[in-house]
C-alpha cells in the first residue's frame, strides 16, 4: 500500500515539475517579447524623427542592407504588431499552464497525505 | 591607416565625416548627419531616463507596501511596542516585615508622622521599618493614599471581622486568657503585622498630617475601615487580630483594636471629636467586645488583649493596646506625633492596660489634657495589673480607656514605639500575675 502510493507520488511529482518548467519557459519568452516591443517602439519613434535626408540600413547578419525610410517604417510597424500578438498568445498560454500546475499541486498534496497515513499504518503494524 | 582584418592595415581616408550611421535599435541603422545623430542620442537618453524613473516609482510603491505589511503584522501579532506588564503582587507577609507596605495616605494625613507612630505599636523592628515605609509613603500622592486607604480599609474590615470573632472569645476570657490571647495575637500578628504595621503606619501617617483634631476623624474613619492604614493589601497578610491599626495618632493599633477603635471613634464622635479620631479610623467597633479588641497590647509585636481597658494604655490611640505596653521609652521617642488616645476600646487584658498606661505617659502633651477630660463614658472593667500599672504615669488605671479615647483626637498618633518597649514588660508582668 505504501509503495503504491509512493509510486503515484513520484509520477505526480514529475508531472508537476514538468508543468513548472513549461510555465517558466513561457514566462521568459514573454519577457523577451516585452523587450522587443519596447525596442521597436523606440525605433519607430526614431524613424519618425528622421526625415528622408538620411539613409536607413538594416542589419541582416554581417550585412547592412540599405532600406528606405518608408519601408523601414512599415517593417518596424509590422514587427510591432507581430510582437504584440505574440505577447498575447503567450499570456493565454501562461494562464492555462498555471491552472494545470495548481491542479497538479493539489493532487500531489493529497497523495502525500495518503502516503504519510500509509506509512504511519505501516509503522504501526511493524 | 585603417585596420584590414586582424593583421593588416590599409591606408584609407575618411570621407563624409559628417555622416554617421546610427543604431536605432533592433538591428536598424540610419545614416544621418552628426546633428541628427546627436538628436537621436538625446532622444534615446530621454527615453531611458523616463523608463528609469518609472521603474524607481514602482519600486518605491512596493517598498511602501512592504512597510505597511510589516506594521500591520507587528500591530496585529505582537501588538507593536505595547507590552502587557503584569506584576503579580503576592502577599508578602514575610517580606513586608522588612519594608512597610505602601499605605495610601489620606490626603490630609501626614504620612511621615504616622509612620513614626505606627512603629511604636509594633515591635521596634517593625517600627523602624514602618517608619521608613511611612516616610516613603508620604511621598505618595494624596490621591494614591486615599485609594490605598480604601483598599486597606476593606481588607482590614474583613480582618476585623475575623478578629472580632476571635477577639470576642479572648476578651471574654480571663485576664490570663486575654493576655495569652493577646500574646497569641501578637504572635499571629507577627507576620500579618508586617502588613498591618504598614497599614497602621500608613494610616497614622495620614493622621499625622491632618490636623489632629479636625480632620482626624475623617481620616481615621477611613483608615480604620481599612484596617489601620490603608495599605496595599496583599493576600498574604493575614492578621486576624493583631492588626496594627494606626489610629490617626500614629499609633498602630492592633487589628482587633482597630475595630474597637472604630467603634469607639464613632462613639466618640458622638461624644466629641477628641478621642474618636484615632479610633474611628482604626477600629470599627460594632460590639462591646470590639472595644476590648481594640485595646490590645502589643507585646513584642503580638497583640495581647488587655485585661483592662481602663488602663492608661487604652488611653493611647485607644484601639491599639500596643501603644501602652510598648514602653515609655519608646513613647518618648515616638512622641513626636503624640499618641492618639484611642484607647477607648476596652483593654483586652491587663497587659494591654499596662501598655496603654505606658502610652499615656508618653503621649503628647495633649494627651494629658484630654486625659483628664471626663471620659466619654465608657467604663471598662480593668483587671488590676499592678506590675503593669507602674508604667502609667498619668492616667489612673480606671480612666485610661476613656481618656485615651478623647486623647485620640487630641493626639494625632499614638506613639507605637512607646508601647513596644513597655508592652513587653507589661505582658510579662501580666503573665507573671496570671501565673
Share of residues in helices of chain A: over 70%
CATH class of chain A: Mainly Alpha
List low-pLDDT spans of chain A: none
Helix and strand sequence of chain A: HEEH
Ends distance of chain B: 138 Å
Descriptive notes:
The complex is a heterodimer of chains A (126) and B (435). Chain A is mainly alpha-helical. Chain A contains 2 helices and 2 strands; from the N terminus they run αββα. Chain A has one domain (1-111): Helix Hairpins (Orthogonal Bundle), CATH 1.10.287.370. Chain A has helices spanning 2-49, 69-125; strands at residues 55-60, 63-67. In chain A, strands 1-2 form a two-stranded antiparallel sheet. In chain A, a hairpin with a 2-residue loop joins strand 1 and strand 2. The longest helix of chain A is centred in the C-terminal third of the chain and has 57 residues, at 69-125. The mean pLDDT of chain A is 85. With 435 residues, chain B is mostly helical. Chain B has 17 helices and 8 strands. In chain B, the strands form 4 sheets. Chain B has a two-stranded antiparallel ribbon with strand order 1-2. Chain B has a two-stranded antiparallel ribbon with strand order 3-4. In chain B, strands 5-6 form a two-stranded antiparallel ribbon. In chain B, strand 1 (2-3) and strand 2 (9-10) form a beta hairpin. The longest helix of chain B has 45 residues, at 34-78. Chain B starts with a strand and ends with a helix. Chain A binds chain B through residues 36, 38-40, 42-43, 45-47, 49-50, 53-60, 64, 72, 76, 79, and chain B through 19, 21, 24-33, 36, 39-40, 43-44, 47, 51. Strand 1 (55-60) of chain A pairs antiparallel with strand 4 (28-33) of chain B, so a sheet runs across the interface.
